[in-house]
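Hi team,

Filling in the usual template for the complex we talked about on Friday. All components are listed, including any nucleic acid strands or ligand strings, so the model treats them as one assembly.

SUBMITTER: L.P.
PURPOSE: interface mapping
COMPONENTS: two
RESIDUES: 615
SEQUENCES:
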Amino acid sequence: MTRTFAILGILCYCMTLSSQDTGKKTEHTVSFKPQYIQIKDEFNYGLVNRGLNLVGEYTLVSYIDKNIFSYQAELGFGVNYNQGVGMIWSLKPFDLYYGFRLNSNPAIQITLGPYLAGYYKWQLYPELQSGHMFWISSYETGPRMELSLPVKNRILHISLSTSLVSLNSRPEYTSEQYYYSLTFSDFVSNPHTNMTLGSWNLFNHTDLRLELIQADKDFSIAYEFEYMGYFEAPAFSYIAHSINLNWKIGNKKTK
Amino acid sequence: MRMSIILLISLAMTACMRDEPINMPFVSFQPREIGDGLVISTPLEEGIDPEKLNSIYNSVHADENLWSLRSLLVFKNNKLVAEAYLKDDNDITSRHLIWSCTKQVMGILTGIAVDQGIISSINDPLSEYLPEVLTKYPEKSAITIEQLITMQSGNDYNNDGVGGETDKVLRQIPDNITDFVLSRPMRNEPGTDFNYNDGDPQLMSAVLQRATGLPADAWADEVLFSKIGVGNYNWVRYKDGTSLGGFGIETTPREMAKIAMCVGDSGSSGGQQIVSADWITEMTSPLIEVSEDYSFGYYWWINTSRNIHFTWGHGGQFAFIVPDYQLIVVMTSLPNTQGDYQIQADEALPIVDEIIKACY
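RESULT (copied from the run log):
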C-alpha cells in the first residue's frame, strides 16, 4: 500500500511539474463535503442506516494541451442510525483520471477517459453488532465523462463516472463469531483480504457531480450523488447525496 | 441536453433505499422432521390450544419490540409441538452464539464432576485444582467451587463495556485466560456478595480441565452432549486451549432444548441418568436472590414467582423450563445487540405466560 501511495505521489508531482514546464494550468482544490448517506449491509440484517458523513477532499487538475489529468483523495467520517447507532470511516487514497477532449467548441468542453480509483469504507454498529467490523473496499476502473457548459455568467461542470471492472473485498460470509479484533493493523489488512474481481455482476460505483463555477471566484458549490453496490452475498449498498463546498488554493498560470 | 441533465439530477436526488423486512412472514408453527432425535407432536395432542398458540406466534412476529427475536420453540411433555424461525428457515440447523447459556451448561458439568467424584466437594478450595497459578495470587486460594458456581468469588471481573475484562477476552488480548481472570483485584471477601460475571465460570472451566485432563468442551462431549443427542454445536476455546466458560457455545435452538429437557427430567435422558437428580434440584434452587423477580442457583436463573428456571444468554437466548406444565420454551435472538436492543427476560417471560395460559 505504501508503494502505491509513493507511485501515486511521484506521478502527481511529475504531472504538476510537466504542466508548469509546458505552460499549462494546474489547479488545486480543497473541498468540504457534508453528505446525507444511506448504508445497507446484508450483515446488518438488511437495515438501512441513514446519517451524516463529513468528508474532506483534495483535487489536483492539470490541463495538458486540450486534455485533462486529475488526482483526487478524500477522507471521511460519519454517524448513522437505524435500530442503533452506526459509524463509518471512508478513505479514497487515489482517484486518477485522464480525459481526452472530444470537441473543439471552446464554450462547451467535453472530455472522456478512464479513471482508476481506490476506496475503503469501514463500518461499526456497536449497538447491534458489538465490536465486529464490516468493510467494503474497491479498486476500480471505468469511463468518466466531464462536461463544461456556460449557464448565464457561470459554468456548469458535470462529471459522470461508472465503474466497469473492480477488485473488491468484503467480510467473509460465515457464521457469527465471539471473537473480534479492532487493532489498527486490522483496519489496514482486513480490506485487502478475500479480494474478488468482477464487473457489473459484482459491483458498481457510479458518481455524478454537478458544479456551478463563477469565473474569477475561488469558491464554488457542487451537488454530488454517489452510489456503490456490491451484489453478491454479503450484499452492500451505499448512497450519498453531498453538497460540496470547494475552494481553489494556490493556483497559478505560468503563461 | 438540458432535459437529460434535469432528468439525471432528479433521479440522483430522489434515490433512496428501503429496509429489508426484518422478519419473514409468519406461515406456520408446524415443526419439521429433520432426524435430530426430537419427538414431534401437535399442540392438541399434548394439551395446548392450537388457536391460542397461533395467536401468540402471530403477535410475536408482529411485535416491533421483539424485532431481534430469531426463534420460538415450544415443547410439551418433551415433545416439540411448535417452532418458528423468524429470520431464516435455515436457523433450524444453523449454529448461532448462545452466549451465557454456556454458563448453565457449566453448571450441569460441575454436577457431573461432583457425581463422578472428579470434584470431591463443592466446598473444595480453588487451590486444590489450580495450585500453580494460585501461587501468584494467594489471596484467591480459599475461593471455593461453590463460590465460583454462585458468582460469589469476590473477584473483581467486569463483563460490560469497552473497558471491561470480557472485551479484552473477546479481542484475545491476554495470553493466558486463567491467569488474566485471577490477576483481577478482589472486590469483596469470597462468599459475601453476588457479582454476575464471566470470570467465575471461566475459572470453573479451568478447574474442570485440570480435574478431568480434558478441556471442558471435550469432556462435555463425552459425559453430556453425546449422551443427550446434542451434536450440532461448537464450543470455542481460548487461544491457550482452555474452553471459554462464561460464553463460547454456538448451537441451535433445538439442541438447547435437549439440554433443557435433560434438566427438566431431573438429569435423565433416554432412560439414562446423566447428572444426579439431587444436583439438578440444588442447581435450579433459588440460592441467591438477585432481584425481586430473579434468583440464581448453580449458574441457573430462577423466576420464583412463576416457578420457572432458565438459561439466559446475551441478546436474548433463553430456554425456559416450566416444571408445573411439563413445558419448555426456547427463544433465541440476534446475539450481538447491546443495551436496550437486547431481549431481556422481562420481555420474554410474558410470552411464556401466554403459552402457559394456552395449556389445558
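MY TAKE: DSSP finds 13 helices and 13 strands in chain B. The mean pLDDT of chain B is 96.

Thanks, L.
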